Structure formats: structure tokens, C-alpha cells
Prior knowledge:
membrane; 69% helix; globular; Carbohydrate ABC transporter permease; MetI-like fold; transmembrane; mainly alpha; cell membrane; MetI-like_sf
Amino acid sequence: MVERATWSRKLFLNFNYALLAFISFLCLFPIVQMIAISFSSGTAVASGRVTIFPVEFTTDAYRYVLRNKAFMDAVWVSVERVLLGCSLQMLLLVLIAYPLSKEVSAFRHRTLYVWFFMITILFSGGLVPTYLVIKNTGLLDSIWALVIPGAVPVFSVVLMLNFFRSLPKEMGEAAFIDGAGHWTTLIKIYIPLSKPGIATLLLFSVVGHWNSWFDGIIYMNSPSNYPLQSYLQSIVLMKQDSSALSVLDQSILANLSDRTLKSAQIGLGAFPILLVYPFLQKYFMKGIVLGSVKE
Length: 295
């Protein structure tokens, strides 16, 4: 029998819905206003007339940004970083998590290797030693300085081995009986059955690499090698250089301002993540809890 909700229960639910809607509005308002500013004229922004809708609609800010060589170079560095970093990270995660997901009877020194990786979560070498290692290995001011230091996130390794351990071990045993080796079992059984978990960790990896900005400032000597988020951080802290406007198009100068240019660049920087997330979202909720419950 379904129990009827009392008036106090309805009042509680309505209050929760209203509170969550208000919090969502507070979270979305800065983003919506930033987009509105990017599509508004500089005079409208300077006079404070822009709230959540563009005033004196114009795309001149985006036209300038897309013709800005420094911005496009930073976009390419970030794209290269995501492609290299995510590929290397997912490869290493699978190769590390597979043997660690085995029982001690199948992998005698499993516990020792687990602690070898877990110790990196408890203790860190620190920023200065890490910088010296990257400098002395010749990675400074190269794309590999952004990719290799974070190639093995141990937290993701723990999630991945839990994904593998949640699979029925009888399937692996049946594959070995049929003559399959570890490589065949991993590629044809474990990886296809772990798509939700792999997609979840891939999303974490893409967002982490795309949004990271601090390592680009630390490890890149030349601003021309900055990834996009490091470039955006540098322009937010300084006045936007519009000296190239006279070279590009004098007619759009009146519609631009420092705030419209910054808003357009930040909006373009967030767009790829907003574009990728819906394609992986169907795996996200399933993958994040996969392996969390053991019988």
C-alpha cells in the first residue's frame, strides 16, 4: 500500500525543490552572464546594462578571438595534451589495474605493489623536487612535461581495479581453460565489460587535462607553449592586448572591450567540455558506482 504524503512532507519537498533551484540559479548565473557579456557591445558592458541577455548583440569578440594566433596556439597545445595525456593515462590504468585486480594466489606480490602505488597518495615529493626532476630529465618547456607527471593517477587505478574485480572471475577462468592468455582475456573480456568504468575515468582524465592550468605556468618557460587554461589565467590577470585590432579590422574596435574579449575566450575554453560530457554522461552514473558494492 502506498502511503499518502502528509502536508508537512509536501512542504518539506517543495522547500527542497525551491532551495535546489535557487542554488542552481546561483551556480549558472555567472556562466550565463559571461556568455551574455561576450555577445554584447563594449559600451553596453561598460555601462552595466548586461545581465543575463546580450545587449546590442554582436559576435565581434568571437571573430577577434578566433583570429588571435596566441589563443589558437594555446587551444592546439591543450588539444595535443588531451589526446596524448588521456591515451597514455588510460593505457597505463588498464595495464596496472588488471594484474592488481587478481587474487594473491594468482599474483603473489600483489599486496606489495598495491602499497607501492598507495604510498604516493599518502606522501608527495612536493613542487620543488618535482620541478627539478622534470628540469633534469629534459622535459621542461615541452608537451611531455604536462603529460608524463600525471600519467598514473593512483585514485583512478583504485577505481579501475575495483571495476575489474567486480566482474565474475569465472569468465576469466573459462577463457584460460579455452587456451586464452592474459592479453586475450584483458582485451576481449575485461575491457569490453568495463566500458562504463573506462568511460567514467576517461571523462575524469579529459576534464583534468583540459582544465589544468598551474602546471603549464610552472613548466613552460615561453607563453607561446601555454595550454589554453594557463593562457586564459594569464590574460584574466592582465589587461587584454587589443593592439592587433588595428591590423585585423578597425570596424570592430568600437564593439569590443577588455571584458567582452575575456568572456569570449573563457566561453570558448569551456565549450569543448560541455560538448564532450553529454556523450559520456550515460556511462558516468553507472560507472561511478560500479565495483563499490561487494558480495
